[in-house]
Each structure stands twice: as structure tokens, then as C-alpha cells.
Amino acid sequence: MNGAARYNRQIILPEIGDVGQYKLLKAKVLVIGAGGLGVAILPYLAAAGVGEIGIVDDDFIEISNLHRQVIYKSSAVGKGKATEAKAMISELNPQIKVNVFAEKLSGKNALSLFEKYDIIVDATDNISIKYLINDACLVTNKPMVYGSIFRFQGQVSVFNYQNGPTYRCLYPDENSNAANCEDAGVIGVSVGIIGMFQANEVLKIILGIGEVLSGKILVYNILNNEQQKYDFEKNSNLEIAKEDFERKYNATENQIEEIKMELLLDEIENNDVLFLDVRNEDELPKIKLKNSIQIPLMHLENEMKKLDSNKTIYVFCQSGIRSKIAVELLQKHQFKNIKSIAGGALAMKQLLKEDKLKLKI
Amino acid sequence: MIEVKYFGAVAEKTKCEFEKLSFSEELSLQKLLKDLNQKYEFESLTFSVAVNQKIVSKAADYTLQTSDIVALLPPFAGG
Fold it and tell me: How far apart are the C-alpha atoms of A264 and A357, rounded to whole Å?
């Protein structure tokens, strides 16, 4: 094999050898998300010689990503993450095949994408996508290598491995609203460490060595270096058949529309419009418009009756993530004309600075 | 004494990562969770519950023993 020199130091490990290297070459791994976790995972899979790697991400590189998404250069701000990540890892190892999917993972594309790969890596930053990945892995019978972060803590597990327990067995309650990095804050090393644990699980699955983190969740705290493993069992009632999947994701998946605040400047006087702030009351800057109302996301389900469903509702949060969750929630409760404001309060703050947006005094 | 460990957003609410609780009479897991919920107002926070490193059903009918370690594990979303 012409990679003999490149991979020599791992081939000489008795656990790998030529046979292991051949397994890596034949492996196909799909990484969903080329953010903090994804950019830690991708170079190591590529360098180790994983033969085919898919990258799913429709996002663009922002300056505020660079402190933790360390493969992106400052000059790449504004470029697509999946394409940039491919360029980086292809240069690192030109012998592997890299496929880019610059699209959002959804009920429409998940099954056909997953079918082409052996292992699915969840490097996303939002809970509803994790359920989608879990369910699509169940339908296509693929293992899901899960990682996620809350501030200085991370979780790692492998779901649906050889028919083992799934994300739903661990977290059956789908309606949760855990904060992501943009809303909770994060430093680069914590996503790096957890991404590295995920890459390690991927390699172990491919090579068939060690003990895969199936039926166990590893919780790591980088501030005190404590790690705990918790066992959990499979709940066979949480199986998902293809028909259930299609019903759940294709029927309920309304497109979440995003709109830029610049286009809404005339709407702040419009009585048929409501701006809904789903941030907590202590979040800054305070944004109070003539036709705005504040209901923190966690109270939205209970306080939905405060909203007039005949009005067009524009939802915002701090950065534009929670507002999408709110839109989804409202859509489930039959609200029709509802959009999420891209970039949230941070984008609005910019308009305030430029004096294009006026607050109610 | 039983020890309760808190993770992620749950630990933000409790403002501590673990605590030791003493109890005089028989304490069920249900009662402990109810008491903690009253004390910390977890409200809409979702979490799974582990006893001695094993995730158990929240509805489990389980009597806690001295030296049990309970953990509240919320899902994380960052990445």
C-alpha cells in the first residue's frame, strides 16, 4: 500500500497493523457539523487514513468561531465551513476522499446521506438535530458517535452501536432547551478534548479494538479533570421505524424562515406585527420596541396564549439559535406567520449603533 | 448521608457540583427529586438521573441507601 510510510507509526502498533490500516482505508465516516467538535475530529480521521469522509455543514465561518474552530484561517471568514474543512484535510492527506454537503441536515436528506456511510458523527450544537441524527441512525442502522459541551464540561457516547442503547434511551424527553456554545459560552480546548474523544471512538469502532462507549456516557470536566462514566440501558420502546421517521420529520418539518432585521425596520410601527424576544430578562442589550414582547424560551410553552396568532411574529434571541427553536415550537402550536431574526439581538445592536433602529423610550 | 452530583445547567441552578444530604427516615428517589426540585426550582430543565453510576428511570420506585451516589445529568447542546 502506498501509504506504508505515511501510516508507519500506527501500523507498527500490534492493535492496528496492515489489516487495521486497510480497515481504515475502507471506512466511510460522516461528520455532521464542522464547528468546534467537527474541526477537532476531522483532521485526526483524515490523518489516520479514514478512506472516505463526508462533511455536512451549511454554515459560514465567522470571526467569533476562530478561537475554537482552529483549522480555519482569519482570511477564510465569510467562507463556507464544509468547503474550507475539506480543503484543509485534503491537503493534510491527499490519499483520502472527502465529500462536502453544504446543506442543513433534515428529515429530507438524512436517510439517503447516512446510507452511504458506516459511522455517523454528531458534532452539532443543537438538541433537535441530535434527535434527528439519532432517529436516522436507528432507521439506517448506523452507530452514532455523540459529543456535546456545556461550558467546561463535555459528554461523549456511542449510540445504536450493534443495536445498543440510543440517545433517546439516555434522554427520552425531547422537549429540552439546553444552551449551545453561542448562548452559553465555550473555550476552544473543551470542544477540542471532547472532539478528540469522539475521533478515538470512531477509530476504535473501525479497528474493532478496545471498548466502545456503548451504553455508557462519559462526562468530562476540564476544570477539575474529573471524569465519570454512567451506564444506561436500551429501551426497546424507543425504536423508530422508517414510516415513523418519515411521518415525524417530513410532516412536521416546516421550514424555519430566517429574516434579516434590516428588512424589518418599517415593521416596528406595524400593529399587525409582533416582535418576540425569547431571551432571559437579564440579557443585554435590552431591546424594547413599540410592538415587542419578552417571553423567555423556557416559559414560551406555558405563556403562548399571550401571543396573537393572527399577527406576523418575528422572533429574536441573542444570536439567532434559540429563536429558531421558538419558531419550531410555535409552528407546532399552529402559529403560521412566524420568522426568526437572523443574528438576533447582536445583529440588532449593530443597527442601533448605526442609528437605523430606534428603541421605545 | 447520600451524595448528589450536579452537572451542566443543573449545577448552574444548584450553584454547587455536589452536596451531601443526611436523612433520618427512609428516603425514596422520588422524594429526593421532589425535595431538590422544590429547593432549586429546576422547572423546565431536563435531566436524567443516575444512582451509583447507572441511569435509572425517573419514575423508579427506589429506596435510597446510605452511601448511594445520585447524579443529575442534563443533555448538553454545545459543539
Answer: 10
Chain A residues near any Cβ of chain B (below 8 Å): 33, 35-38, 122-127, 130, 147-151, 153-155, 170-171, 173, 175-181, 184, 186, 191, 217, 219, 221, 228-233, 298-299, 301
A138 and A195 housed in the same domain = yes
**What does the pLDDT look like over A41-97, one tens digit per residue?**
999 999 999 999 999 999 999 999 999 999 999 999 999 999 999 999 999 999 999
For residue B78, being part of any structural domain is answered with no
> How many A×B Cβ pairs under 8 Å?
100
Q: How far apart are CA A9 and CA A302, in angstroms?
A: 58
- The pTM of the full predicted model, rounded to 2 decimals, is 0.77
Looking up residue B30, the CATH number of its domain turns out to be 3.10.20.30
Which residue range forms the structural domain that includes residue B64? 2-73
Per-residue 3-state assignment (H helix, E strand, C coil) for A202-223: HHHHHHCCCCCCECEEEEEECC
From chain A, the residues in CB contact with B54 under 8 A are 230-232
Helix, strand, coil distribution of chain B in percent, nearest 5 = 25, 30, 45
Residue B47 in any domain: the answer is: yes
A238 shares its domain with A278: no
Domain with residue A307: its CATH number is: 3.40.250.10
Please tell me if residue B67 touches chain A, with a CB cutoff of 8 Å.
Answer: no
- Structural domain ending residue among the three candidates A202, A229, A252: A252
Q: How many domains would you assign to chain A?
A: 2
**Domain range holding A226?**
8-252
Residue-wise pLDDT tens digits, A139-184 = 999 999 999 999 999 999 999 999 999 999 999 988 766 667 677 8
Whether this model's ipTM surpasses 0.90 comes out as: yes
Q: How far apart are CA A266 and CA A268, in angstroms?
A: 6
Which of these, A253, A83, A235, lies nearest to A173 by C-alpha position?
Answer: A235
Chain position carrying cell 500500500: A1
